[in-house]
Amino acid sequence: MSDILILGGGFAGLACGVTLAACGRRVVLLEKKPHLGGRAYSFKDSETGDVIDNGQHLFMGCYRRTRGFLGQIGTADRLSLLKDIRVDFADAAGGRDALACPSWLGSPLHLAAGVWGMRGLSWADKWGLRRVDASMRGMRGLPRLPADLDRLTARQWLDSLGQSRRVQERLFDPIALGALNDAPEVAAATGFVQVLREAFYTDAESARLGLANVGLSDLYTDAARKFIEDRGGQVLLNKKVKAIDEGGITCEDGAEFRADFVVATLPPWDLKKLELPAALRGTWENLSAAPIVSISLWLDRPVIAERFIGLLGADIQWAFNKSRILSLAGGGQYLALVISGAHKHVGADPKALLELAKRDLARCFPE
Predict the structure, then answer these.
(1) For 16-49, how does the pLDDT look when each residue is reduced to its tens digit (9 = 90+)?
(2) How far is Cα 299 from Cα 297, in angstroms, rounded to an integer?
(3) Which of 152, 161, 180, 214 supports an S-S bond with 218, CB 3.0-4.6 Å?
(4) Distance CA 15, CA 223 (A)
(5) How far apart are CA 32 and CA 252, in angstroms?
(6) How far apart are CA 149 and CA 134, in angstroms?
(7) How many Cβ atoms are within 10 Å of 69's Cβ, its own excluded?
(8) pLDDT tens-place string over residues 228-268
(9) Is 329 helix (H, G, I), strand (E, B) or coil?
(10) Do residues 217 and 35 lie in contact, with contact meaning Cβ atoms separated by under 8 Å?
(11) 3-class SS string, 217-253
């Protein structure tokens, strides 16, 4: 009998297992798939031999618990925090822009300087941002965010502060889509404000962006598993849970595991399919997914110099230069393209997604 059972071998489950194992608890972690990583894993492409992440992830300096977890398992050097706080943008209309925040100014002046340097925003757009700044400064030291934020979407909150549609489309929407993975008309203002506060109103270090210089699986899965097992725990694959009861869990293959505690790190739509005690049922079962579509594309020549770049006025929102991020040799270029909150694209035929990618890249990068 273990102290604690953990359901799910994704980022949350492995981080939970490592933390508990470090505290001396006997952990048994169960994963239904034949590999660890959940929605953040990587695999090798059979044709090119390149490592493909099942979804591109961008880290930030304010991910303090994530960075601590990687340090604990000994893989912090596989995550590179970029020295410059800079996000480049390519416009489908042919323009280029950048949010470049000089870190030496400190927080939040570095953000103000970055916004004032954006060419795609008018002086009126930039001047109007003082209302957002005043609101954020008023919430900077609060232990809890105001309850009335929960009644607003990110779009409603920005509209209430008089933000123009252009400044929202070119500055705030990419942040909302990237961090909250849904359209500002859907994403909660509470989560959006929390992102702004953590990233831009804490310190300059928090706004630094980071990229894994290896595949996601190599970033954390094997090292986390070893950490747990070295401390007497177990990590078991191909174990699909059927039911949770007060004494433990039962798997679909009939195996039973008993423990003092059970921690489920499964997404709600998977957890609700299990046989659960009545006390665990609740409104959380109504939560639904917001899909991300990732497109891996190999070109015969380099077209993007930056590590990553945002696309404005296009369906594709971000393009990541995997050739540069992973230090790949060769004359072509391997790109990872991302659409967050991709409700209308998630069921599309791969050929249609390829045509979409080619169209948007051609508009933003005519070369």
Answers:
(1) 999 999 999 999 999 999 999 999 999 999 999 9
(2) 7
(3) 214
(4) 11
(5) 10
(6) 16
(7) 21
(8) 999 999 999 999 999 999 889 999 999 999 999 999 999 99
(9) coil
(10) yes
(11) HHHHHHHHHHHHHHCCCEEECCCCEEEEECCEEEECC
